[in-house]
Amino acid sequence: RPPTYDGHRNGRSRGHKRNTSISQLHLSDEDYIERVKWSNKAEYIFALIGFSVGLGNLVRLPYLVAQNGGAAFFIPYTLTFIFVGMPLLYMESSLGQYSRLSHPKVWRCAPVAAGVGIAAILVTIMKAISVSLTMTYSVIYFGSSFHGITNNTLPWMTCAPWWNEGRECTDREFFLPRCPRNESEVSPLCTSVGNYSTDMFWQNYVLTLGRGLDNFGNVGDWSYYLPLALLAAWTMVCLVVCKGIRSIGKAAYVTTLLPYCVLIAILVRAATLAGAIPGLNQYFAPDWSKLMEPQVWRLGVEEVLFNLGISWGAYIALASYNRFGNRVHIDSVSFSIVHLATSVLYCCVVYTVLGVVHTSAPGNQLGLSLPALSAEGEYFQYSTPAIFIAFAEALSLLPLSWVWCALYFLMVFTMGLNATSILVETICTAMYDALPKLRLHKSKLSLCVCISIYLLALPMVSANGAYIHHLVEEYGIKLPIIWVALWQVVSVMWIYGYKNFSEDISLMLGSEPNWFWKICWILIAPAVLLTIFIYSIVIWTFPMYNQIPYKEWGHWIGYILAGISAVQVPLWAVIMIFAYCCKRKMLGAVHPTNSWGPGDPKVRRTILEQEAGITSGRPHSGYREAYTDQTINAYNQE
Fold first, then answer.
1. What is the Cα–Cα distance from 1 to 4, expressed in whole angstroms?
2. Residue 635: what pLDDT?
3. What b-and-e string marks burial along 322-336, b requiring 16 or more CB atoms within 10 Å of the CB?
4. 479-490 vs 525-538: helix axis angle to the nearest 10?
5. In the prediction, which pLDDT does 329 show?
6. Potential cystine with 580: which of 115, 347, 448, 589 (Cβ 3.0-4.6 Å)?
7. How far is residue 124's CA from residue 117's CA, in Å, rounded to a whole number?
8. Contact 331/86 with Cβ under 8 angstroms?
9. Higher pLDDT, 37 or 385
């Protein structure tokens, strides 16, 4: 098979002569501008870990484990990870490594799916904005933590006049746990106080929260420190991505390892205090009856998809900088094991700290539970405040609380920095591939992208910015990314073809993937994604923020945010079919283009030379064993 078409017995490849297809396999401008590679394998692995092991593992997963059967929840989570998450990760990484292209350009393998790559980039931009806001808030909390040096009390634990400005406020005390807002009856075993200082600090000082999106275009005022904190966050992102993967790889050693060091330090410190073991027992105790509830399995699938960051295009972009013969299947499996182990570590940290809080909170007979640590109960735990309100309260009860809070919010910042840097590099890589000469101006392009996204994020740090942010999260990210993931796997396995894809991997690794991977790609992953997408639409409800519903025009903006990315898939499918019909090559839209093939120029040249009989079939010096006649001839099988 030439790099673009399958062979058939009649010596033709989907209507094209083989020798004609080979002769058209040219070396384009992007081959002459050398694509940089990772300095070593460690940088690539650290970048993968830094991107995917983030805030979702720290907040959402521990909450879901506590609410959905304890350790039993890891059964649907792990099964989904094995049969859906890991295969999709392997597929994306292989696509990027084989083609050395970004998400939009990789669809040379199936032009009709070009909209999948464009949709992924649009959602990636929205996600980069969202994660940068978390970095912004962590900057403010990090700086505020140092007030505990002189006052012996963290600022969000008391209604300090320098931030409260005379509003109604109650100092946070731990005599009773919070009552979730969805409780229909007042219980004497919990407190329904809604103006605790931790809530007021978050709403009035960090968010400067307004009354909602009353009028179209009115985003409210800005407090000077929020745009400055956002600027500090994007300055750090720009410094990390200024040299592309060269600078990202070096920064990954620090930004990926630092969260592990902080988490282990918190875990060790909490484990030495009373209440740590009971905390683990309380939340990890399995409730096997929960496995009979479909909702638990749905949450397990969704958590894997969002935690791993499937279909953002990041894995394709990162793998495109690998050596052609890199053992991508080993990387995918190894990384998956690390990801699962880290998820368990995060849960242990959270439950150990909560166990200590249970014991050390004065007069608290029930202790602080994860669902009760924030004012909005269950819903609250799925949003950003859980990172700041819930854990700020819990860590405030540890000895030397300001130290642990400062370390914790520094860790949150580096987690956001990891994810945002990779998302920005994904966007820049797409631009490099669209205009290869931009690779000569990486620093300038990175600066322009960071400034552009900073300006897009500015309205979200205004008084009504939290409402805009939530609108973008609910409409622009959650459903569209499942839509993109579904069409991505369908396009690769059913349009390009799993046989073609397997032969591409064979050229890189010397052997095709086994049937486990193929069954997951062809059947299991598409079926699961389709089921989740349909179910998410069925149970869809209009979102609200801070118990304030959006106006009708707000929902229409949400529809536009969702549609602007989702519509790219059918729109570009129609455009490509029409374009190929005009060329009188209707089926060309579902066949690889002549420029599709291995991204390594040496491999492409070797294939051409062997077809022309110029070489004896011996690989060039420095090639891996995978570059043999046997694997190259995978392209020539009839």
1. 7
2. 41
3. bebbbbbbebbeebb
4. 150
5. 92
6. 589
7. 10
8. no
9. 37
The pTM assigned to this predicted structure is 0.86
User: Which pLDDT does position 613 carry in this prediction?
Assistant: 62
Least confident of 260-269, 392-401, 411-420: 392-401
Residue 342's Cβ-count burial label (10 Å; 0-12, 13-18, 19+) is buried
Residue 399 to residue 348: CA distance in whole angstroms: 19
Tell me which residue of 239, 624, 229, 208 sits closest to 424, measured CA to CA: 239
**pLDDT for 113:** 94
To 5 degrees, how large is the angle CA 104–CA 106–CA 110?
100
User: Which pLDDT belongs to residue 301?
Assistant: 87
Q: Which residues contact 66 (CB under 8 A, 6 or more apart)?
A: 283, 351, 369, 370, 371
pLDDT for the residue numbered 484: 95
**Chain centroid, CA 174 distance in Å:** 35
Instruction: Note the pLDDT tens digit of each residue in 581-615.
Output: 988 887 888 999 888 889 888 887 777 777 666 55
CA distance 349 to 446: 36
- Residue 551 is given by DSSP the state P
Q: What is the DSSP string of 456-509?
A: HHGGGGSTTHHHHHHHIIIIIIIHHHHHHHHHHHHIIIIIIIHHHHHHHHHHHH
How big is the CA angle at 368 (ends 272 and 296), to the nearest 5 degrees?
105
How many other β-carbons are positioned within 10 Å of the β-carbon of residue 520?
24
User: What is the torsional sign of CA 633, 634, 635, 638?
Assistant: positive
Per residue in 206-236, pLDDT tens? Answer: 988 888 888 887 787 888 999 999 999 999 9
Total Cβ atoms within 10 A of residue 209: 20
Q: Which among 185, 186, 125, 230 has a CA at the least distance from the CA of 460?
A: 230
C-alpha Rg value of the chain to the nearest Å: 26
Amino acid type, 458? L
| Rounded distance between C-alpha atoms, residue 158 and residue 221, angstroms | 26
Exposure on the CB side of residue 341, measured as CA atoms within 13 A: 9
Cα gap 541→348, rounded to integer Å: 33
pLDDT in tens, 485-494: 999 999 999 9
User: How large a percentage of the chain has pLDDT more than 90?
Assistant: 43
Contact 443, 243 (CB under 8 A): yes
Question: What are the tokens at 60?
Answer: 């959402």
Which whole number is the average pLDDT over 526-551? 89
Say how far apart CA 105 and CA 448 lie, in whole Å: 21
Check the CA dihedral 555-556-561-564 and report its sign: positive
pLDDT of residue 294: 84
Q: What is the DSSP string of 165-198?
A: TT---B----SSPBPPTT-SS--TTSB----BHH
Q: What residues contact 557, with CB distance under 8 A and at least 6 apart? A: 471, 475
